[in-house]
Amino acid sequence: MVAGWFTQDGGEEGFRLLGTRCTACSSVFFPREDSFCRNPACGGGELVEVPLSKRGRVWSYTDGRYRPPAPYVSDPAVEWEPYTLLAVELEAERMVVLGQAVPGVTVADLAVGMEVEVVPGVLNEDPDTLWTTWHWRPVGVAS
Predict the structure, then answer these.
(1) How distant, in Å, are the alpha carbons of 49, 111, 117 from that of 97?
(2) How far is residue 81's CA from residue 69's CA, in Å, rounded to a whole number?
(3) CB-based contacts of 7: which residues, under 8 Å, 6+ apart?
(4) Which of 8, 33, 104, 116 has the most C-beta neighbours closer than 10 Å?
């Protein structure tokens, strides 16, 4: 996916989304910001990388029932399978982060306010490359 947006090692237990925090105003950003503080009331510019909360609560959700156009990667020869998108409010940061649910979780399995956790996922793979991303999984559900 995008380098620096999440940890790459440590397996599922150590997997975290990575953001940045302004040292002047303590605002946290995801996706990460490496150039300037996005808080319009802050003149700070020093940003440090921070791991974000592993858990949060479902703020909203929906399903994607159509094949998105390019540059979305999908094999047109394979039958399209709907996927579930979640907006999750992170536990400590109180910011909303979007992402797909783990495969097999549908909108019927979700409710606003349900606790979920971030886990590593696969965006796409071919014989030479595995593209990773993050998925949201309801707490207490095995991958």
Answers:
(1) 17, 16, 12
(2) 15
(3) 14, 15, 16, 18, 51
(4) 116
Neighbours of 94 (CB within 10 A): 10
Rounded Cα–Cα distance for residues 81 and 84 (Å): 10
**Please, how many CA atoms are within 13 Å of residue 126, restricted to the half-sphere of its CB?**
5
79-114, pLDDT tens digit by residue? 888 889 999 999 999 999 999 999 999 999 999 999
The whole-angstrom separation of Cα 64 and Cα 137 is 17
109: CB partners within 8 A, 6+ apart? 101, 138
β-pair partners for 19: 50
> What b/e string do you get for 132-141 counting C-beta neighbours within 10 Å, with b at 16 or more?
eebbbbbeee
Integer Cα distance of 116 and 58 in angstroms: 7
Among 24-38, 49-63, 114-128, 129-143, whose mean pLDDT is lowest? Answer: 129-143
β strands within 1-126, DSSP E = 18-22, 28-29, 47-51, 55-64, 83-90, 96-101, 115-125
pTM, to two decimals: 0.85
